[in-house]
Amino acid sequence: MFSVYCATNTFDIIASPNRFGNHCYNISMMQTRVSSGTVHQLTPDIQKVLLSNTRALAAWQDITPLARNEFICWITDAKKPETRAKRIRVAIDKLSRGERRPCCWIGCTHRTDKPMSPTQKWALDKTRSPKK
Length: 132
What we know:
The protein is an alpha+beta fold.
């Protein structure tokens, strides 16, 4: 048995001789496993869009789990559905062009493996405090 990978699916191929000595091929298709981040799990809507774009999916599978986590956190942090949809489109565009991180994002504040950076604390304080 050997496996063949294409951008959206993995195929397991088993070659076995038939009664005439020829090889018959049994091909079974497995669902593609799309990786998640370190803290955040990939949501179905993001996965669906990734599976529909082979370049973005290849880039997604190539980036680090922390980078995937940044994209997922950035997308899911949107408060309005239209903002979330826009961020998904932007993420797919960035990944398709080979970019490996969302731009202008302070980073995931949900990680517990390290303390927040001073920049993250400053940005969060600015968004939580009333404007003068």
